[in-house]
Design a protein that fits this description.
By secondary structure, the protein is mainly alpha-helical. The protein contains two helices and no strands.
């Protein structure tokens, strides 16, 4: 979160941005030009593998698969 002047942090359902249960949503998108090949394909294969999905879950995020 930011401490920039003029930016007001809002509580949601009584939770501050510092609370671990603060409802924060962020999308991560993977975009390629054409069919992914080489290292890009290997990374995407890993990201959507069982091991990659488990890492996402351990970080407290919810994976959404294509």
């Amino acid at each position: 979160m930011t401490n920039e002047a003029g930016v007001k942090k809002l509580k949601i359902d009584g939770l501050s941005t510092e609370d671990k249960d603060y409802p924060y949503y962020q999308e991560f998108l993977f975009v390629t030009k054409g069919t992914p090949l080489g290292h890009a394909k290997a990374f995407l294969d890993f990201a959507f593998s069982t091991k990659g999905i488990e890492i996402v879950k351990k970080k407290g995020m919810t994976p959404v698969l294509p």
